[in-house]
Design goal:
Length: 350
């Protein structure tokens, strides 16, 4: 990894949940209000400079950001780390900004819901996890962005049992089966569904997402599924997805800690786990020793995958480790590990 990463500069800003780099700017969604999104000029990568920031009410969490040309999308959800019920003035969903002038982001559109945790976007559409009236937990919502001032919901998909207003009854506890976030690759949405595992949805007809397959290993494994990431090229003639569970308090048993899965999706109707990778650590979950998998990078350009691992040995000195995986073969990923300073967030998942 030392050959891949070189330290160029440091910029002191509030902790980030997502960093997106487009052209001469980086966009950072922050973890805690009142900090929302920072726009940073990185035209000289040795001298990054904040050019503008979007602030938030204390009850709003906005840690994700996507940018397409002069349009910026961010999520708004309830900041559950400190809030209970939704305040009357809370406005969740997806907010859209005109950033033609990067120094003055201008709000132009808002898809309103009870909150959106994460999302993907290709500029034409946004694929979001959204808390919707009448449903238990986040579901998949597809937004048409043809007019960014009026984002239009054109499709929904949910796991049977979530639509309480429609008479459905969940077979799980509370909000445990819910959409964490979809990733669009081609005409598929690879969608993590927390303790519901993951699902592959077909969007050949984007207004009618269709279930292709799913896989759920929780139970017996205790941690919820955070991300399902298809590798854009074949490995040894097979189509492969990297899947991470997330180390959280909302778990079924104290151990094992969350880890990474390699799933063969060559036959997408029958996904099959073919390998796993773990950082050795067999201690039961402890809030003062937060250790386990979180998130792989979402843009893959080769056979090296960067994966974040929570690694907090003491409550006063949290650290996050990053494992890099070079999958030489689907069943035998080769991994190395490194650590970098980070601030661990509260019990809410990212």
């Amino acid at each position: 990894m030392a050959a891949l990463l070189h330290h160029l500069a440091k910029l002191d800003i509030p902790g980030g949940g997502q960093v997106v780099a487009e052209g001469n700017y980086a966009y950072v969604g922050h973890m805690r209000p009142p900090h929302g999104t920072s726009i940073i000029d990185v035209s000289d990568p040795r001298r990054p400079e904040i050019v503008s920031q979007v602030s938030l009410p204390v009850h709003t969490h906005s840690h994700k950001v996507r940018v397409h040309g002069d349009i910026m999308l961010v999520n708004n959800e309830l900041f559950r780390a400190t809030m209970g019920e939704r305040p009357d003035d809370f406005a969740g969903g997806i907010r859209i900004y005109d950033i033609a002038d990067r120094t003055k982001p201008r709000p132009i559109g808002h898809y309103r819901s009870q909150g959106s945790h994460r999302f993907d976007s290709d500029g034409a559409y946004a694929y979001i996890s959204s808390e919707e009236e009448g449903y238990v937990g986040d579901i998949v919502v597809i937004l048409d962005l043809a007019d960014p001032t009026r984002p239009e919901p054109i499709a929904k998909w949910w796991m049977p049992g979530q639509w309480a207003a429609g008479g459905e009854t969940a077979t799980w506890q509370g909000r445990r089966h819910r959409c964490h976030h979809p990733l669009r690759r081609g005409n598929r949405l690879y969608t993590s569904y927390w303790h519901g595992g993951f699902v592959i949805l077909g969007i050949d007809d984007i207004r009618q997402p269709s279930y292709i397959s799913g896989l759920d290993w929780s139970p017996p494994y205790p941690c919820p599924t955070h991300t399902v990431l298809p590798i854009p090229h074949e490995l040894m003639g097979r189509k492969i997805a990297i899947v991470t569970d997330e180390e959280v308090a909302d778990r079924l048993t104290p151990s094992p800690n969350a880890f990474l899965w390699v799933v063969d999706i060559t036959d997408e109707k029958h996904p099959v786990p073919v390998a796993t990778w773990r950082v050795p650590h067999d201690e039961p979950f402890n809030r003062d020793c937060w250790f386990g998998a979180h998130q792989p990078q979402e843009t893959v350009n080769g056979n090296i995958i960067l994966v974040t691992w929570f690694a907090s040995r003491t409550p006063t000195a949290p650290r996050r480790s990053t494992a890099s995986c070079r999958p030489r073969a689907p069943a035998r990923p080769s991994c190395r590990a490194m650590t970098c300073s980070s601030t661990r967030r509260a019990a809410s998942s990212t």
